[in-house]
Amino acid sequence: MDRFDKNGDNKIDLHEWQAVRKAAQQEVRKQHAEMRLQADTHLIKAPKERPFILSNKNPQQLAWRYRLWAWLHLAMFLFSALLLLQRLA
Fold it and tell me: What pTM did the predictor assign?
C-alpha cells in the first residue's frame, strides 16, 4: 500500500489505482516473458502393471476396436491357410 500511496493519506485514489494496475500488468508481462524463455518439460510415465495407451477414445471403444481387428486378422489367417491347403492338395 505504501508503495502506491503517493500522497500518504492511506487511501488509494483513482490515479494511484491506475498506477497499481499498470504495475500489476507489467509484473505479469515480465513473469510471462520469463516463463516463455524456460524450456517446456513434458513427462509421461507408463503405469506399472497396466497397458499404457494414449488415445482420444474411451477404453470401451478401444477394446471394441482391438477385438474387431483381432477377429479380422484371425479370419484372414484362416482364409490364407485354407487357400494354402487347397493349393498343396
Answer: 0.43
